[in-house]
Write a structure and sequence with these properties.
Elements (H helix, E strand, L loop, with lengths): L1 H11 L2 H7 L5 H9 L3 H8 L4 E2 L2 E2 L4 E2 L6 E2 L15 E2 L26 E2 L10 H7 L12 H9 L3 H7 L8 H11 L1 H8 L10 H12 L25 H10 L4 H11 L2 H7 L5 H9 L3 H14 L3 H10 L28 E5 L5 E3 L2 H8 L14
Parallel strand pairs: 5-6
Antiparallel strand pairs: 1-4, 2-3, 7-8
Amino acid sequence: MRYLVGRACAVAGYAQLYHELDLLPEVSIAEEARENGATAVFNHIMASTTKYAVLDDYTRTIHDKHLRVASLNGDTCVRSLLDAKQKYGQPSSWRAKTRDYDDRYFNITEDMCVDEFSTTSHCPAEIFSLLYTPLPVDLPTVHKDLLILSAAYYGNIDRYARLRRPVMIRYEVECVVRGIYHYTMFAKWWSLQTMPPDCPREIPGAVDARFIMNNDLSRIEHADFQMPYCIWYPAHASAKTYEELVRLLLAMANAAAHACIVCNYQHSFDKIDSVPDYNLWAEAKDSRNLYYQCEIERKAAEHGIDLLEQEKMAINYDDTYPTQSALFEPSSMALGRELGLADIDRQQFSVYETFGPDFSAYELKVCAPADTKIERTYLDL
């Protein structure tokens, strides 16, 4: 209990009592002291060349027997975070026997910070410089979720491996998938990780897609192969790769045919000979080569497939797949307002087979001069 008492001293500023406890320099106590203005306690810990992680706020455990050397890394549920509340909603009839609140990675009070109201938080200005500068050995006082999402989005292995939490945070899956699709080294790193049983299928699927786009089909016979659909963006595999993919796994025929339309591999498209569907038809209509549209419509008529009916169904159920003309990532005209993590969520199905994360507002924020302000937050062109 000495370390818990020491942490209480860091919150309350009881420096003399803290020194009497004779504790190892512990990073959670240091972060708590810095957050609550206990300068004497904080300086005493930071003067040590080696610091340790004894308290684990994620699992609410104390590792005083097996010490871990650590740095200040934003893994402490400091006192101010306990004031971030979430409102417990009224369960609907079909959820009468379920919880109506979100699980949180920090739950040291063991009540998920449930209350009669919710609080909102915005990203402090100090965090933006950490998006484009090297991370210090000891992180300053920041809520690092934005840094985690940014590292995943841009496929930065060093940052992501250091900053990630034991459980995935909101929007992290979408950012990881985007990073894997765009950065081969990030995909390779993920392929070497032990995937937990509850790992979202989109992550190994993205790894498989990135490997295919690099003309590597070694994962096709892998037990965890997830049959991705998008295997042509942001890179094109060779025509022979798509042909061999279908030979190895016939279920990938439509994905490979779609890739052939995007890449204009007409010979391979004919060789694959997939069954027409709305996604292929939509992509064919987007292509400059009219051959694909004519061929798909001809084959659909032969098979008795109503492409117009499929189109109506896709639109009605908001299940339309992006074509190559919609692959450009958005830019932002939002400036002069506070940003929160919710600004990452575009709520739009993307080519990555999950909701597409959007970092454009943050990219504008870091590019614009610090004194730039506009009255209108959004400008509709």
